[in-house]
Amino acid sequence: MPSTLGGYSLDTDMARFPSAAALAAWAGLAPGNDESAGRQPRPGGQRSGRTRKGNVWLRTILVQSAQAAAHTKHTALAARYHRIAARRGHKQAVVALAHALLIIISHVIARRQPYHELGENSFQRLDPAARAKRLVHQLTHLGFEVQLHAQQVPASPGGAPVLAARS
User: In the beta sheet, which residues pair with residue 110?
Assistant: First the structure.
C-alpha cells in the first residue's frame, strides 16, 4: 500500500532502494561529493554546496517539511537545524534537515515502527566526555584555565555522568 506525501506516492515497499542513502540520492538530498572526475580537492579547499536535482516533487515537500521542523520547539530536529545553521547557514541547514527527515521516513517505513522524538538535548547525551572536551577547549580558547573532576553523585536521568568544573 503506497503512502502519499503531498500527492506524491511513496511506495512502502522499499526494496528498490538498497539503503536509506540510496533513497536520499534518488531524491537529490545526498551529501555532496568532494571528488570530481577522480581528482581530489586541495586540503582546506571549498566544497561545493550543490546537490543533484533528483525527484523535484519529493525534494520540494521534504525541504518545506524541514523548514517547518526547524521552527518547532524542543525537538531533536530543531536542535539539529540550529547546530548546522550556526556553521553553514540557513539554506544548507534546511537541506541537511530535509535529508535527515528522509532518512527518518525510510527507517519508519522499513521497520514499520512509529517515530519516537528524542528531545532537543539528545545529541548532548550521546557522548558526555566529548561534550566536556569541546567545552573545555572553548573555555581555554577564551583564556580560562579549566580542570575537570568527576563528581560522585547518583546517576542523572539521562544515565550520563555529571562533571563538575573548577576554574
Answer: none
56-64's contacts with Cβ under 8 Å and 24+ in sequence apart are: 56/28, 57/6, 57/7, 57/8, 58/5, 58/8, 58/10, 58/27, 59/27, 59/28, 59/29, 59/98, 61/5, 61/6, 61/8, 62/27, 62/29, 62/98, 62/101, 62/102, 63/94, 63/95, 63/98
At 127, list the grid cell.
557522548
pLDDT exceeds cutoff 70 at 44: no
Cβ-based neighbours of 101, under 8 Å, separated by 6 or more: 62, 65, 66, 69, 77
Q: Are 61 and 6 in contact (CB under 8 A)?
A: yes
The number of beta carbons lying within 10 Å of the beta carbon of residue 79 is 19
* pTM of the complete model: 0.65
What value does the mean pLDDT take over residues 142-154?
A: 80
CA distance 6 to 61: 7
Spatial separation of the C-alpha atoms in residues 132 and 134, rounded to whole Å: 5
Q: How confident is the model at residue 149 (pLDDT cuts 50, 70, 90)?
A: confident
